[in-house]
Design a protein that fits this description.
This protein has a single domain (about 5-160), classed as dinb family like domain (Four Helix Bundle (Hemerythrin (Met), subunit A)). Helices cover about 65% and strands about 0% of the residues. The protein contains 7 helices and no strands. The longest helix has 23 residues, at about 40-65.
Length: about 160
């Protein structure tokens, strides 16, 4: 594997593991408590993250078919609200499984790409309009880190109040 591919895969794994370590610290009685990320609970955050794990997979599927994925980002908040609402009745375990499955789909897709697609100016980069890492990071491993920090701050605030 190229260094770029190896690095991208390692960053995904590292941030996924770190997110799950923090998630494991949340007691079950707090899974539905609002305020982790804005008004969202842990369960709602997981619903949100599973959807965004799928987004770069859709981009990649289109790009591999030679087409640019055209998704209207005019109102990401409406997309977030719609996707969280669609999973409102799901149990924590179901949402965590969905997050794990979508993460594995991301890893499988990245692992399946030839090394040369991670290089600058690759044919895939030309269609994506971004590097493979750039197309994935914002919605996957950088997203995991963003929400991990929010969970840590939320847990720390509760510990300070106790």
């Amino acid at each position: 594997m190229s260094t770029a591919k190896t690095t991208v895969l390692a960053m995904h794994r590292r941030e996924y593991d770190a997110f799950n370590e923090v998630l494991d610290r949340v007691p079950p009685e707090r899974w539905d408590e609002p305020g982790v990320c804005g008004k969202w609970s842990i369960r709602q955050m997981l619903a949100h993250m599973s959807f965004w794990n799928l987004y770069p997979l859709m981009e990649l599927e289109y790009a591999l078919g030679g087409r640019k994925f055209d998704f209207d980002h005019a109102d990401d908040e409406a997309v977030n609200v719609r996707n969280v609402a669609a999973r409102e009745g799901f149990s924590f375990d179901t949402l965590r499984t969905e997050f794990d499955v979508t993460f594995q789909a991301v890893m499988s897709a990245l692992e399946a790409l030839p090394e040369e697609e991670f290089e600058p100016e690759s044919p895939l980069e030309q269609i994506l309009g971004d590097s493979v890492d750039g197309a994935f990071a914002n919605n996957t491993y950088a997203h995991y880190a963003e929400h991990r920090f929010e969970i840590e701050a939320w847990l720390d605030a509760a510990a300070d109040e106790a």
